[in-house]
Amino acid sequence: MGKYGYFNDKDKEYVITDNYPPLPWINFLNNDNFTAIISQSAGGAAFYREASTGRITKYNQTRAIPIDRPGYYLYFREEDGSVWAPTYEPVRTSLDSYQCRHGLGYTQFESEYKGIAANVTYFVPRNDNVLLWKVQLTNHREKDVTLKSFSFVEFSFLLAHREPIYWQWCRFYTTTLFNQDMNAVTYDCHVYEDQPKLKVFLSSSEPVTGFDCDRNAFLGRAGTLDLPDAVKNGGLTNKELPGGGFPIGAIQNDITIKAGETVSFTISLGCGLDWETDAEMIKKYQDINTVHAELEAVKEYWSNTIEVFQAEVPDKDIERMINIWNPYNCIVGFNRKMSMTGMTTGMEKGGVQSRDSSQDSMSLVSLRTDLAKERMELIFHFQMPSGEFYSSFDGDIRKPSDFYAVRSDNGVWPVFTTYALVSETGDYDFLKKQIPYYEGENVSILTHMAQGLKHIYGRRGRNNLPLIIDIDWNDNLYIFKEDGNEESVMLAQQLVYACRLLKEMADICGDTDIIQSCDEIIDAMIIALNGEGVWDGDWYKRYIFASDKPALGSKDRREGKIFLNTQSWAVISESTGTKERAVHCMDKAAEMLGTKYGLKLSYPAFTGIPEPEDPLYNNGPGVRENGGIFHHAHTWAVMAETFLRRGDKAYQYYRQILPNVASEERGADLYINEPYAFSSTTLIDPDPRAGEGDMAWFSGTVTWMYLVGTQYILGVRPVLKGLLIDPCICSEWDGYKVSRRYKGTMYHITFKNPEHVSTGVKTITVDGTLMEGTVLPHTDAKEVNVEVVMG
Ligand code: IFM
User: Fold this and answer.
1) How far is the CA of 521 from the centre of ligand 1 (A)?
2) Model confidence pTM above 0.90
3) Mean pLDDT (the chain, rounded)
4) Could you tell me if the CB of 348 is within 6 A of ligand 1?
5) C-beta of 417 in contact with ligand 1 (< 6 A)
6) Ligand 1 neighbourhood includes 625 CB (under 6 angstroms)
7) What is the side-by-side strand order in the sheet with 735-742?
């Protein structure tokens, strides 16, 4: 039991028992089109498709005080005038009990106030754009009771940036009315821009006995969300806002509960593209049985989705993450640039990014193959005939978005993901699928990938390494740019790795030209990478200037002497020439960058003063890209350790950034983020907040943690030939089990580790028959039992 809550693994929930964890600890309720984020106090916002363009309700954008408001609130007013909320906020009347259970796709509040037990479940059904609040009230008092129930949301202006910038005009572009036939407050934000014209409603399964559309009328002159005047006075004012103003939706239901009995009703907040669709949704969810069935369907969807990989391992922290929260976070994070969290505003436009979205798709390949495939096709469409990819674009209107810099690495990520996709499905025809370049001709996906890598290879500097142009994976490196001829060691290594994967795919397609050009690039890069100007004696440099200025990541520097990524990627790309060098650079990384919370991205952090050659860095020292523990990069160190076959080290690194482990071991007050969602970074010395997690939910960390955990540590990895068995674990383990759904077959794999090794496979038996090699043979069987003896 943690200070603020605990994991309930049986029901796949995190249960929050304290109203105020260090930050709002949120959950995502969504289907593929509609999202509501919700905190432990029912704070949050709902949006249609993209948080930047489809914002339906308001949420504190700038995290001003109080940070977690408004939300989807319920106020209950007793006959004696007292007011309470089953979610505690915003009223803050003491409750006799309170719990917030964040589950997969739903959030449930269970609370009790003077003998009235409330159970409120918020969720978004799989196929309708609506947030349902399923309310169940049980009267444990001796007398019948009549409660006035007030539900409340504050509407937003669809385009999220209108709120902070243009609200004084936009509030008049709205019409908020009560529609008797629909039993709903209806909200219309009639704007001329080209985002969808959403028709929004707030309704109830019970007859509405009062409403408010105007925030001023609801709150009153001196009222606050804690106790709005209308609630205090016992009735809504029935004020509409035909010409705009401060639009809200508030509806009143009068609920009588007999002593000892339970009543249920539902509040719905939704949007359609026309009022007819809204009316149908409202009607549909007036039936409590439908609501119940839809909630079960949401739970079933999540169980089926995560079923693709389930493990039983001796380490329960890892098991919980791999089975439940990591895959959940992968799917939630898949649309990260279109979404928002308690800490990210969701106001940026340009929903897809070739780099980040390719990586986010890597885990979706097994979890939601349909979405991963669709996304990759879209990304290839945003490649120019030169081979360069647009960094950011809007998938809905199919246009590139402005982006501040050239990301020279865009071309490598789609290769990694396509390899993963084809390995998962076995659909090699995907490689031949024709997709047009952006404003160009149709070419196969194989050609797209080859063209992307050629483009990177085509721009090289004086060490024969790829030019960084503005930035590679590290978005903050642009500040070091001088004349544009700077080289990226990391990109060279990634290019090698990408060429290795592309070669395998080209082989399947019989494309010898691509194989040959991959071989040329690999050979040239390995020579360049091990030249004097790149290997610094103990590790690989990071960023090489065209001038004689000492490279970032070299001993000659006072700050930024060593960078993690070029050590990890040296190993992953197998470009070190010798195993000794591979081991040496990772050992040096451990020595110079290791901390009890994980590996720093670089060391020492830049301070900007007084060394004149270093520009003032954006992030403070020890924060994010400036020598912080950047979890995304940390995952590649885990992967690299498995390449070195050092399972104990990989296991140690892997555990360090698991959110449940970090929250427990560092303490929730230090770590601050949700224990069930991956943080993007950990702040570290010289920052005094060392150990604090930053930005939960959305990070490349999420997808890579899922991959390294399932494929490189537990070692069940799809490759082009089939399902490869390649464990690299903690040597103390006696064994473990994995169930993996792959190409329609469920493989039940038992790993035995009698000799307590961390890697190596002695024998594999498939349904009782000993097999050769480590790639499981193809089968049409529905279920297969596999036994792996390590040693
Ligand atoms: O690689 C980037 C990513 O694209 C966005 N977040 C920061 C990372 C490192 O700079």
Assistant:
1) 26
2) yes
3) 96
4) no
5) no
6) yes
7) 309-312, 735-742, 745-752, 783-790, 761-766, 769-771
